[in-house]
Design a protein that fits this description.
Number of strands: 30
CATH architecture of the largest domain: Alpha-Beta Barrel
Oligomer: single chain
CATH class of the largest domain: Alpha Beta
Distance between the termini: 89 Å
CATH superfamily of the largest domain: Glycoside hydrolase, family 3, N-terminal domain
Bound molecules: 2-acetamido-2-deoxy-beta-D-glucopyranose
Strand order of the largest sheet: 11-16-15-14-12-13
Shape: globular
Radius of gyration: 28 Å
Number of domains: 3
C-alpha cells in the first residue's frame, strides 16, 4: 500500500505546482515560436519563416525583419521594444542588470526584472571590487554561472529578461571615481580577465562553449561589457559625465582604456557592448564609427549588439550639443556608427521616435536599421527566446537563493577580504578566550550598505553584528549616527563598550552617500568624526582591536598604520548579503584571508596633485601631475596595489625559466626607434612592431609556493614584468599573470606559467605603436623577492 500512496502524493504535488504556475502565468513567457500562442493571436505559426527552426538564424532573422514596416522597425530599436502583434512578435524589455546578482535597480517603472511575493529576492554577491580582490578566476566564473542560473529561473517565472547589462569593466583611473565599487579595479589585465570569466559564466551553455559558428552559439543569458570607453567620471567639481570630453592619448586608449573591452569581446565572446555618455577627443562615443563599427565589430569581431548608455543620444544633443544635431541627424549618425539599440530612460527612445523619420528624410538608409535589428534578433534567437532551450526549462523558484548560492556569496566575501595590517599576529582572535566583543562603528550593523549599488533584493542579510554573535557576546554601539558622522556624541557609548569587551571590532567606511553612480568623491578621507571614533575607541579598548573598513574606493587610514593600539586592519569592500558572516569568520580564523588590493591606496594628498579630469596615466612633469595607478605613480602610498597579508607565510622558489630570446628578422621586418633616457644603454635594434612578428615565443617558468607557516592558506601569486631600464614612458612594472592557490601548512605547490613574449613584454609607445623592445626585461614574482631576466635580441 505504501507505493500507491506515494504516487498519489506525487501527483497531488505536481498538480498543485501546475496550478501555482498557471496562476502566475500572466507575466511569465515561454517562447515566441509556440503554435498555441500563435493560435490565440488568430495566426498560424507555420506561415512565419522566422519560426521555422529547420532554417539557420540569419534566414529566420531576415524573414522577421522583412515582415515589418518602417515604423514597426523603429519601435523595436529602443530598450522597450513594443513587439509586432500582427506577426506574433511580443514586446520585449532589453534592460536587465546583474552586476553582482540579479538586480532591479536603475529602472523605475514596470521593467523586465522585479521582485515580489513569488520571488522575494535573489542572491546578492559582494560588489565586484571585493570579488576582484580574490584574484580567483574560477570564483569569478562560478559567480557568473550562479547569477545566470538565478536569472534564467526568474525569466521562466516572468520576473526577468534575458539580456543583462553587466559587467562594468571600466578601469579605475582615479581613486575619486564614485563607481570604483562596481569594477574589478585599476589594472587592465585583471579587469579584462574578470570580464572574460564573468561573461563566460553568465553566457556559456554547457557543452556549446566551443561551437565554431559564433552567430549561432547558444547563450544562457546575454552579458554586456560597459561603458565603452574612457568613462570614469561622474560628477566632480563642475565636470559631469553628460558633458565631459575625455581628452585621451591614443597610447592610453590602446594600453589601458580599450584593453579590457578587447579581451571581453575576443576572449569572452560577449554578446553586447554598451557605449558611454562622454565624448572622446570631441566625438560622442555612441556616434563614433571608428570606435564602434570599425573597432568592436570590425577588428574585434563582436557577435552581438551595441547598446547606448541610457539617454546617450539625448545627452549627445542637449549635453554635448554635438554639431548642433537635430534628433534625426543624431539618430542617423549613431545608426551609421554601428549603434544597434537605444536605451531611452527619461524621454523614451530616440530610435523609436526618430529612426523612421531619419530614414524618410534620407539621412540614413533603411538597410542600417535592418542591420541593427538583425544584430538584436540574432542574440534573442541564441538565447532561445524564439525556440526555448530545453536544459533551462525546469529552472524555477528553488534555483533562486538556494543554500548553495547563499554559501557561494559568503565564500566570495571571504576570498576577497584583504588583511591590510596584522602586527604581532593579533588576528585571528582566539575563539575560546574571547567571550565578549564590542562591535562598534557606523557599519557595525550594516545591511543595505553591504550590497552597494546595482543590487537587487538579497535573500537575507547577515550583518557584522549577526556574524560576530556566532563567536561571542556582542556589545553593539554605532559610534556615529551614520557614515557622515557629523556628531561626536555617540563616541562615548562606543568607548564604554570597548572598555568592557574582551575584543573590539570597529567597523567604519563609506556608502552610497559618499561614492556612487553620479557622484565622485572630493577627498580620500573617512567622513566626519570617524577617525576620532577609531582613535578614541582604540585607546580605551580592553582587548585587541580590529579595524574593518567597508568601502569601494581607497581611504587614507595612514594614521592607523602607526597606531600601536590598532594592530589589525581589514578591508572588506561592500561584502554582499553574507558580509557580516565572512568578516567574523576571518577575524576568528575560520577562514585565512588571501585577498589583495585591486586598487592603489593613495595618500589623501594625491587628490591635490592632479584634477580628476586629467585622463593621462603617465606623469605630466610640466603640470606637476604624478602618474596614475601602480604602473606610473612612483610616490608613497597608504597601501600599494596587490597588498594583502595572510595568517601564514609563503616562500617562493623559481623552478625553471627560459632566459633569452634571439629573434631573427627577415628583410621585411624593420627596427623601430624607442625613446631612451640619455644615460641609458640603447640596443642597436631597439624594437620591432609586434604586428610584424610571428609571436610564437613563450616564456615558461615554474614557481614553487611553500607555506612555511602553521596555518593552511591561499596565496595569490602575482607575476610582473619590468621593462628594460631607460625606456622613456614605460610602466615601472606591469602585472602579466596571476594565480590564486591553496596550500596546506608545511606543504608546497608548483605553478607553471606560460606567457607570450609579445603579449606580456610589449609596450605601447607614445605614438600608440605596439612594440616589442629589445634588451634586458625582468620577470618578477610578487614584490620582487624572486625575479629573473629575459634578454631579447633582434638580429638580421
Ligand atoms: C572548449 O575549449 C576549452 C579550451 O580549449 C576546453 O578547455 C574545454 O574543455 C572545451 N569545452 C568543450 C565542451 O569542448
Ligand atoms: C609586538 O609585541 C612586542 C612585545 O609586546 C613589542 O615589543 C613589539 O613592538 C610589537 N611589534 C609590533 C609590530 O607591534
Ligand atoms: C540591525 O539592523 C537590523 C535591520 O536594520 C535591525 O532589524 C536590527 O534590530 C539591528 N540590530 C541591532 C542589534 O540593533
Ligand atoms: C548630537 O546628537 C545628539 C544625540 O542625537 C543630539 O542631542 C545633539 O544635539 C547633537 N549635536 C549636534 C551639535 O548636532
Ligand atoms: C618619480 O617620478 C618623478 C617624475 O617623473 C621623478 O622626478 C622622481 O625622481 C621619481 N621618484 C622616484 C622615487 O623614482
Ligand atoms: C620621443 O622622441 C621623439 C623623437 O626624438 C620626440 O619627438 C618625442 O617627443 C619623444 N617622446 C617622449 C614621450 O619623450
Ligand atoms: C577559487 O574559487 C573556487 C570557487 O569558489 C574555489 O573552489 C577555490 O577553492 C578557490 N581557490 C582558492 C585558491 O582559493
Amino acid at each position: 500500500m505504501a507505493k500507491p500512496s506515494f504516487v498519489v502524493w506525487f501527483f497531488l504535488a505536481l498538480s498543485i505546482a501546475f496550478l501555482a504556475s498557471s496562476i502566475s502565468a500572466d507575466r511569465s513567457f515561454g517562447q515566441v515560436c509556440d503554435a498555441s500562442r500563435f493560435r490565440e493571436l488568430g495566426l498560424k505559426m507555420e506561415d512565419f519563416g522566422f519560426c521555422d527552426s529547420s532554417l539557420p538564424y540569419p534566414v529566420r532573422v531576415k524573414d522577421l525583419v522583412d515582415r515589418m514596416t518602417l515604423p514597426e522597425k523603429a519601435q523595436q530599436l529602443g530598450d522597450t521594444a513594443t513587439g509586432v502583434p500582427r506577426i506574433g512578435l511580443p514586446a520585449y524589455e532589453w534592460w536587465s542588470e546583474a552586476l553582482h546578482g540579479v538586480a532591479d535597480t536603475g529602472q523605475p517603472g514596470s521593467k523586465a526584472t522585479f521582485f515580489d511575493d513569488q520571488i522575494p529576492g535573489a542572491t546578492s554577491f559582494p560588489t565586484v571590487i571585493l570579488t576582484a580582490a580574490s584574484f580567483n578566476e574560477s570564483l569569478w566564473k562560478t559567480i557568473g554561472q550562479v547569477v545566470s542560473t538565478e536569472a534564467r529561473a526568474m525569466y521562466n517565472m516572468g520576473h526577468a529578461g534575458l539580456t543583462f547589462w553587466s559587467p562594468n569593466i571600466n578601469v579605475v583611473r582615479d581613486p575619486r571615481w564614485g563607481r570604483s565599487q562596481e569594477t574589478p579595479g585599476e589594472d587592465p589585465l585583471v579587469v579584462g580577465k574578470y570580464a572574460v570569466n564573468y561573461v563566460r559564466g553568465l553566457q556559456d551553455v554547457e557543452g556549446t562553449e566551443n561551437i565554431t559558428d559564433l552567430n549561432s552559439r547558444p547563450l544562457k543569458v546575454a552579458a554586456c561589457c560597459k561603458h565603452y570607453a574612457a568613462y570614469d567620471l561622474e560628477s566632480w567639481l563642475g565636470s559631469d559625465r553628460f558633458h565631459f570630453d575625455s581628452k585621451v592619448m591614443e597610447q592610453d586608449m590602446r594600453e589601458t582604456f580599450l584593453k579590457p573591452f578587447e579581451m571581453c569581446v575576443k576572449d569572452g565572446d560577449v554578446s553586447s557592448v554598451m557605449c558611454s555618455f562622454n565624448r572622446i577627443n570631441g566625438i560622442p562615443i555612441c556616434a563614433d564609427p571608428q570606435l564602434l563599427k570599425d573597432t568592436i565589430r570590425g577588428e574585434w569581431d563582436l557577435h552581438g549588439y551595441i547598446v547606448s548608455d541610457c539617454d546617450s543620444i539625448e545627452v549627445m544633443i542637449d549635453g554635448h550639443k554635438w554639431l548642433g544635431d537635430t534628433p534625426e541627424d543624431a539618430v542617423a549618425q549613431t545608426l551609421k556608427a554601428g549603434l544597434d539599440l537605444d536605451c531611452g530612460y527619461k524621454i523614451g527612445s530616440y530610435y523609436g521616435n526618430y529612426a523612421g523619420s531619419a530614414v524618410e528624410q534620407g539621412k540614413v538608409g533603411e538597410a542600417e536599421v535592418d542591420k541593427a535589428l538583425k544584430n538584436l534578433y540574432t542574440v534573442l534567437m541564441r538565447l532561445g527566446y524564439f525556440d526555448g532551450i530545453p536544459q533551462f526549462k525546469s529552472l524555477g523558484k528553488a534555483d533562486v537563493c538556494s543554500e548553495e548560492h547563499v554559501e557561494l556569496a559568503a565564500e566570495a566575501a571571504r576570498q576577497g577580504i584583504v588583511l591590510l595590517k596584522n602586527d604581532n599576529q593579533t588576528l585571528p582572535l582566539n575563539y575560546g578566550e574571547i567571550k565578549s566583543i564590542a562591535v562598534v562603528g557606523p557599519h557595525a550593523n550594516a545591511t543595505e550598505v553591504m550590497i552597494g549599488n546595482y543590487a537587487g533584493i538579497p535573500c537575507r542579510y547577515v550583518s557584522p553584528v549577526d556574524g560576530f554573535s556566532a563567536f561571542g557576546n556582542v556589545r553593539y554601539e554605532t559610534g556615529c549616527a551614520d557614515v557622515a558622522c557629523k556628531n561626536e556624541s555617540l563616541i562615548f557609548p562606543a568607548m564604554r563598550a570597548a572598555k568592557k569587551a574582551d575584543a573590539t571590532a570597529i567597523i567604519v567606511g563609506l556608502d552610497l552617500s559618499v561614492e556612487a553612480e553620479g557622484s565622485d568623491r572630493v577627498d580620500l578621507l573617512l567622513p566626519g568624526y570617524q577617525n576620532q571614533l577609531i582613535r578614541q575607541v582604540a585607546s580605551v579598548s580592553k582587548g585587541p582591536v580590529v579595524l574593518v573598513v567597508m568601502s569601494g574606493g581607497p581611504v587614507d587610514i595612514s594614521f592607523v598604520k602607526n597606531d600601536p593600539k590598532i594592530k589589525a586592519v581589514l578591508w572588506v569592500g561592500y561584502p554582499g548579503e553574507e558580509g557580516g558572516r565572512a568578516i567574523a569568520d576571518v577575524v576568528f580564523g575560520k577562514y585565512n584571508p588571501g585577498g589583495r588590493l585591486p586598487l592603489t591606496w593613495y595618500g589623501a594628498d594625491y587628490v591635490d596633485m592632479l584634477p580628476m579630469t586629467s585622463m593621462a596615466f603617465r606623469p605630466i612633469e610640466s603640470l606637476g601631475y604624478p602618474g596614475r595607478t601602480y604602473k606610473f605613480f612612483n610616490g608613497s602610498t597608504v597601501y600599494p596595489f596587490g597588498h594583502g597579508l595572510s595568517y601564514t607565510q609563503f616562500n617562493y622558489n623559481l623552478k625553471s625559466s627560459k632566459r633569452s630570446l634571439n629573434i631573427k628578422l627577415h628583410k621585411l621586418q624593420h627596427c623601430r626607434n624607442v625613446n631612451y633616457s640619455a644615460s641609458a644603454y640603447k640596443p642597436m635594434c631597439p624594437a620591432v612592431l609586434i604586428e610584424d612578428l610571428k609571436c610564437h615565443d613563450n616564456i615558461e617558468f615554474e614557481v614553487q609556493v611553500k607555506n612555511v607557516g602553521r596555518r593552511d592558506g591561499s596565496e595569490v601569486v602575482m607575476v610582473y614584468r619590468v621593462p628594460p631600464e631607460g625606456i622613456v614612458g614605460a610602466p615601472m612594472k606591469e602585472l602579466i599573470a596571476f594565480k590564486r592557490v591553496s596550500v596546506a601548512a608545511g606543504r608546497s605547490m608548483t605553478i607553471k606559467f606560460v606567457v607570450n613574449a609579445c603579449k606580456s613584454l610589449g609596450i605601447v609607445d607614445y605614438t600608440a605603436n605596439h612594440l616589442l623592445p629589445a634588451g634586458r626585461h625582468t620577470i618578477m614574482i610578487g614584490d620582487g623577492a624572486v625575479s629573473f631576466p629575459v634578454n631579447i635580441n633582434f638580429k638580421y
